């Protein structure tokens, strides 16, 4: 008899029942008692011969593997990529040939700096790594939610990471860049300034993994069947639109729900609301590269979409949660070197260094060269070679042939195939062997300025506030001033706001640029979050705070309006037992008020009975619920009985983000929420 439970890739997971369900040791021996060790007498010493105890404890003692040296905290999800536009003229990659074909994928989102057990809403870059199990091998696109990087040469990566992670003497701060070591390194590495603008912007505090973009960062090559090459940059565009939180909200979410992002992804997929991203490519040739203001091999630069439009060629749908976090999310091993025929690397020195580091790190993390045998890492296409043995070898070929060339027959005897085998693009290279940074990498401020001027006023304020917060955590004044000296080369307005925030009255001398910045690059709307928000409230969550006796007609109208919008509604109540509404119907609670603060919702509605009105206005968590929603510019709907609470929470300035709700206008409220935030309140 078998139980079929959820499995990945179509194969059901088999679970045996009846006698076969008997607990056994790893050797398969049935266990009679898993509660008590073997002792000499009921109160006597434990016997060494207790093999059941020893095996259990031995295995437990070895459960942990080293966490990733960066991107330790992550969350993985299965999905598939569907090709919408074939590009054989650009690439011979099998995955890009047949429109409508679906390729299985595994995507892991992550923060960078924090340990595995850190919180989700750190101000940090997010990893966005996707493994495509193509018919011609695995292709890993190991990107971030920011299109540029801190450094230009992989040689500096250990320094960058050391500087941002906990200081070696004290072992803190955890999962944050707001400290002297990080800003010391940054202020001495002007190439990093552009990326810090992104990092201080709301891009580094996304509302959800579902609401952020992804970027392959580097320039790669696409190579077609005739061997012709084009350059390419890869983009992920969320169909859900972009959305971030505000910093004060991020701080509070970390306390309320440190797992906010992973829970959000799990819940959305569990509810069948599958997030999707379009895969876009920016394709360009040598002529463009030669005329572009910056070096296309410099990972601290992007190519504005206005200069090279993003062409959408397919869609990624994430549609299945993992069955086992360790087996899948923890053991997945991404390597930038995993590319397939039709895609190739360029000479970007950051990318070339990564190609060594990822393979190397998997050896340490997963314990041996056979990590490709672990199901999440194994290709889903046939694979044959003469690699053998090593720790935990799971694919062990039969027969005597294990070398090439050989003169044995065809059976189980793999051969090279020049027709479909991977060939590197035959780029001509020559040069003097030396350690030098190319002159063409020397402009550090122009794109930082372009990013700043592309933002809305609110977003610019947030960037300035981000720098002010982080630098205020730096105890060393010279470090603060050195960062300021770089910001003066980016934009006067930004430098002034930060100086004011820090209380600096005497501005430092601007840093000496390695190359004079270009100050007339045009703004690029694609760089702003607020200019690229969604056009509906779909995928977002309303926090509906109810008391006993709340008017049922209003509750039903709100539930319907938000369901029609494709949004979720979470019921918040004074007690976890839920509430009984005016018509006697009941609502189960998703959260008790102190466990469900408004920071975990995108908009809130307060529907109270007259009886509850006075008492709830005095309740502290209820006051916080409202005052936070108000301070974070959220849309708030309420019924009359909630007015005393609004007053007590200081949210009684009836601006355009507030709406008294009735059965007749619940739909209007849901539509208003499409704007996500009432930013005018902050202005
Ligand atoms: Fe990296 C992990 C993304 C530069 C070395 N990196 C890692 C992950 C992502 C990125 C998303 C997590 C993968 C997962 O979920 O398992 N890294 C980037 C991007 C970079 C970048 C977009 C710049 C464009 N990384 C970078 C450099 C080096 C590394 C320059 C070293 C030379 N990265 C690693 C690593 C990690 C890693 C140490 C840690 C765990 C792992 O690889 O599997 O090898």
Please, could you describe this protein's structure?
It is globular, with a radius of gyration of 28 Å. It starts with a strand and ends in an 11-residue tail after the last helix. The strands form 4 sheets. Strands 3, 4, 5, 6, 7, 8, 9, 10, 11 and 12 form a 10-stranded antiparallel sheet that branches. The longest helix has 18 residues, at 349-366. With 683 residues, it is of the alpha+beta class. The protein folds into 4 domains: 1-30 and 51-63, no CATH class; 74-373, Catalase core domain (Catalase HpII,  Chain A, domain 1); 444-530, Catalase, four-helical domain (Hemocyanin, N-terminal domain); 538-681, Class I glutamine amidotransferase (GATase) domain (Rossmann fold, 3-Layer(aba) Sandwich), CATH 3.40.50.880. Helix content is 27%, strand content 16%. Mean pLDDT is 96; it is low at 1-13. Its EC number is 1.11.1.6.
Count of DSSP strands: 20
Indicate the CATH architecture of the largest domain: Beta Barrel
CATH superfamily grouping of the largest domain = Catalase core domain
Total helices: the number is: 18
Mean pLDDT reading: 96
Bound molecules: CIS-heme D hydroxychlorin gamma-spirolactone
Q: Given this structure, which CATH class of the largest domain is correct?
A: Mainly Beta
What is the domain tally? 4
Give the N-terminus to C-terminus distance in angstroms. Answer: 65 Å
- Radius of gyration using CA atoms only: 28 Å
- Helical/strand content category: alpha+beta
Helix content: 25-40%
- Beta-strand content: 15-25%
The low-confidence parts are 1-13
| Major β-sheet profile | 10 strands, antiparallel
Quaternary state reads single chain
Which shape, going by the Cα principal axes?
globular
Examine the coordinates and then state which fold CATH places here, giving the name of the CATH topology of the largest domain.
Answer: Catalase HpII,  Chain A, domain 1
